[in-house]
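Methods — Computational structure assignment.
A single polypeptide chain was analysed. Its primary sequence is given first, followed by the predicted tertiary structure written as structure tokens.
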Amino acid sequence: MDSVSVAMATFNGENHIRRQLDSLAAQTRVPTELVVTDDGSEDDTVPIIEAFAKTASFPVKVYRNETRLGYRANFMRAASRCRSELIAFCDQDDYWYRHKIAASLKPFTDPDIVLVYHNADIVTDEGRHIGPLISDATRKPILTPLSSGPFLPFALGFTLVFRRSLTRLSDLRSNSYDQDDPSQPLSHDKWIFFLANVFGVIAYLDEPLAAYIQHTDNTVGWRKASIRESFRSRVLQRSSVYAQYIKAAENRAAILEIAKSKVDGVWAERAATATEYYRKVSWLFAERYALYTGATLSNRIKAFRTIQKSGGYAGTWGFGQKAFLTDIFLGALIGQFLQSRSTVHSGSG
């Protein structure tokens, strides 16, 4: 069976990290190594790890960053220092069930699979179960290249196990664009999922294999959007969301254009295919943007028909039947009204 490294990024995690470390030690299939990159902790995080290393049944390597990188780049640095064929991202404050590593490794007997992700339980710091991380059962167990849609779904880092070969393009991540946070490059998990969706097959395990602990110290935590927030993002702010998707798709096409010269064989072929895919995604989202901002009904209907004739609602591009109905009623019929409402809403704060 392939070796597996655990890549952990830490920062001021003394309140929670021992629980996570103990869960790694209790795995039925322990990791080949634990690689920790600490981002300048000012508490006892590193001493706790060093104490754990003395009794761990696997090597524990700790690296301290000279300058603070932030969690996105820190996770990528941890992955870059891993030496196993498989890498598992690990947050400092969660808890892995005893069979998480063993279960996550099984799909990799298929050489085409480059990434495995799994469900998890959302749990409070006191141990109260909130619910599953992924509540819908519609996620496919196997995703072939480019079949997960251009942006969604992706998976949170602590659920990922992936082939180290996906890190060969890590130097391009700093040039990426996160459609959900335009001020930042893609986070470590979005970046790896993006590459996996281009270059190989992704497997999903619906079984919860870890507890996703929620507490006041979470860097990125789980929170269910309020009805008001959902209404604003899904109805009033659709045009601004699509503007970000246009730029994100253009950015991914540009990255893949560069990637073609850095890889060979089937990877080069898939990079070329994905480059054209994201160019068309950008064009389709530009039409959806026009659909929600067109000044006249005829302009909005024209944009809708362009998307329809181009196969934009067939599902390949991540739109689908639900988007078809949404674009008819919220776009073609009242898109301009929604845009004006969004402007008023933003102005009122």
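Note: DSSP finds eleven helices and ten strands in the chain.
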